[in-house]
Structure formats: structure tokens, C-alpha cells
Amino acid sequence: MGLQLYTIRDAMEKDVTGTLKSVAKMGYQDLETYGFDPSQVGYYGLRAKDFRTLLKDLGLTTTSGHYDLFKYLNAPEADLLAYVDQCIEGARQLDQKYITWPWLAPEDRGIDKFKLLASKLNLIGERVKKAGLGFAYHNHDFEFIDHGGENGYQIIMKETDPNLVKLQIDLYWVVRNSKKQPADYFREQPGRFVMWHIKDIDRKTRDYTELGNGTIDYTKILPDYRTAGLQYYFLEQGGNFRTGNAMDSIAESAAFFKRKLSKFL
């Protein structure tokens, strides 16, 4: 059972070791990182090798990281690839399997920028694959905005090489904003959706909520994991924590997932 650490960013900022001990006790086993520091090849104020030691001592692994690749979308190729090489070094030290592109700045969400993005994703994917790692793109809602009959996600799926660029599908955003269901995407490009973000939609606000409190019926999505090509999944909740405490929310989601959903994977 995986967790995207961004969910508990406030707790991670205050106490890395104590927070991760609590995460492990809840039953989480795998983590997805965010906030890579290329200046010291580090995470959460720790050098990568020290962070890996901490995870190992707690019986945890990390198989993917969200890296700030989007900051280099419009940068010279040499600058982009220099940052990619730093990401590769960090991922190797943590024994991560995937480097993930997590975001696009608001000013970079037009069709022309998505086409530029596709070319950059292929470039990065080739570099990362040569290093023996996997590379993936993570979606939000803006990829599904229609631009004259075309949207960004269609461009990414069509203009990137599936052998170089895998997809980390955020199921919350697909269910909430796409005209298609997750299964439609899985059937369109089977085997490409190697990672999933699993979170729920609040019944009233349509914001994030704890698993089991929302409207997404994961019993109808999770069984398609073979078609999708699922390798790793991460529970996540970006905000709207029921008690105001993210640690309470991840405990609640973990308990619901283990009780109701894990049997489908």
C-alpha cells in the first residue's frame, strides 16, 4: 500500500522521522516523494543516502518521486537534461523505479505548450530509460480541458512514445473532469498506466476527501489493474482533511482501503 507524501507535507516539514514511523504503523509500505533538492541530492532536509537509510530502518520503500521537471519546460535542452541527470542520481540513491513529471504551470497549458511538452517528455524518457529507470507523466484536471476538439491528455497519449513515457493516472481528476472513464483509457493504451493515484471526491464540495467518504466506486475501477498495467499505486489527499489533520486522514483512508479495496489488487 502506497502513500504520496505530499498529503502529509506539513507533518513531514515538522518531523520527518516521527511522521514516517506513524505512516509505517498505519500499514503503508511504499512512498512517493516530492520536493527533491538537487543542490545536495536530498529529500526533506536529508541527503538521499540518509533518507534511504531511514526508510529501510522503518521497513519502507519509495518507488516513485515527483520531480520539478515542469520548471524546465521552456528552458534550453542542456539545462533540462542537466536537471534530469540530477533527478536520476537522486532516484538511484533511493532505489526508486520511476521519475515522474507532476505538473504544468498555468501559463503552460495551451495546445502549443502540450505539443512542446510531448517532445520534452520523449527526450526525458529516453534519457531516463538509458539510465535504467522508468519515466511517467502525472495528470491533473487541466489536461482534459477542450481546445477546439483536442485536449492535452490526447496529445500526450498520441505524441509520446509509450516505451519511453508511461502514465501515472490520477483517478480523482479523471473521474471528476474527463469525459471518459478510467477503463476507457486503459483499453485505449493497455499496459501504459503503470502507476495510479487513488483518492476520493467529496459528495458535497467535489473537493478531495478520505477514501470511503466520497463518490468514487473503486470496486469498479481497481479490477482493471491488469489491463492498465498497474505496478504501483499511492493513496493521496491534497487537502480538505475531515479533522483538519492530514495524519488522521491518511489513517482513515488506509483503514478503509485495507478493509474494502485491497482485495481487488
TrEMBL record:
InterPro entries: IolE/XylAMocC-like, Xyl_isomerase-like_sf, Xyl_isomerase-like_TIM-brl. Pfam families: AP_endonuc_2 (PF01261). Residues 21-230 form the Xylose isomerase-like TIM barrel domain. It comes from the Bacteria. One of its GO terms (molecular function) is isomerase activity. Keywords: Isomerase. This is Sugar phosphate isomerase/epimerase. It comes from Chitinophaga varians. The lineage of its organism: Bacteria, Pseudomonadati, Bacteroidota, Chitinophagia, Chitinophagales.
